[in-house]
Amino acid sequence: MQTRDRHLRLPASAIAPCERASSLSEAPVSIHLRGVGQTFAGARTREAFVALDAIDLDVHRHEFLGVIGPSGCGKSTLLRLIAGLLQPTEGRVEIFGLPVSRPRDDVGLVFQRPTLLPWLTVLDNVTFPARHQRGRVSSAERRKGLDLLEMVGLEDFAHRRPPQLSGGMQQRVGIARALFQDPDILLMDEPFSALDALTRDEMSIELLRILTARPKTVVFVTHSIQEALLLSDRIAIMASRPGRITEIKTTNLPRPRSLDTLTDPNFSRMADDIRRHVFSKRKVTE
Ligand SMILES: Nc1ncnc2c1ncn2[C@@H]1O[C@H](COP(=O)(O)OP(=O)(O)OP(=O)(O)O)[C@@H](O)[C@H]1O
């Protein structure tokens, strides 16, 4: 409990019950994929490999969509397509109604490892997007960077360098950096998977708090059913060969969520249901 509270930076009043779940399907669509396919040319055999096939997906404004599925089913590829790091070989990917042809400033990315610059301070890493774009960081931007560090519980570490921080702390810096430009959309690719189990739970709760203060549309790739259920409004379940979405489940767990949510009887029911679904698809395809 103590460990968790250490990072509580939002007043209790900010953690109001979240009403978005009921109205999500009526919210405007932020991310829109239709008939999306991704085929890679094989490196050695030159044989084409269909990594993703016929993906249809709408993610609504301020929705938290978890993406889960076996290794190699195309979860990261899906995220890279939405991020504009990759162009689909079939179909279309749109953000706010516009085709995605390159990475956008209003889309933040968080990866498994935060790729911080080890020679810069924590604060300089968080404000790096400003320096990268304009070659300088204004005092207002430094203030904003410090506010974000406070939000993720790292205000006392602003002038340290990344190698002096634990893995969980570095990931917090990565999240603060992704939030620096206040993106509308946050794409997260197994952001907590390199962390130990306790830190991982702690980070999930922290992410929920951050999103309560600064709502975002989130696509969150994970291998953890527990993590997906704790965080998501809906969970897209994927299968491989070819990579595809086989089902999208709505998580009807009340918000605000906390570690107590893990003991909700509905939680274990839904976890079993998702596990069964993932497992049945694996048996068919392997
Ligand atoms: N640039 C590429 N060239 C060729 N094949 C690729 C490329 N990128 C991904 N792949 C292949 O596409 C498939 C899907 O990869 P992807 O990384 O998206 O899966 P994933 O579901 O994220 O896997 P994991 O859970 O293990 O991270 C894999 O078989 C991978 O080898």
From TrEMBL:
Record keywords, A-Z: ATP-binding, Nucleotide-binding, Transport
Sequence ranges assigned to domain ABC transporter in this UniProt record: 31-265
Key word Transport present: yes
A matching Pfam family: ABC_tran
InterPro entries from the UniProt entry: AAA+_ATPase, ABC_transporter-like_ATP-bd, ABC_transporter-like_CS, ABC_transporter_ATP-bind, P-loop_NTPase
Keyword flag Nucleotide-binding: yes
Gene3D superfamilies, per database record: P-loop containing nucleotide triphosphate hydrolases
Gene Ontology MF terms: ATP binding; ATP hydrolysis activity
Sequence similarity: Belongs to the ABC transporter superfamily.
Protein name: Nitrate/sulfonate/bicarbonate ABC transporter ATPase
Organism expressing this protein natively: Celeribacter indicus
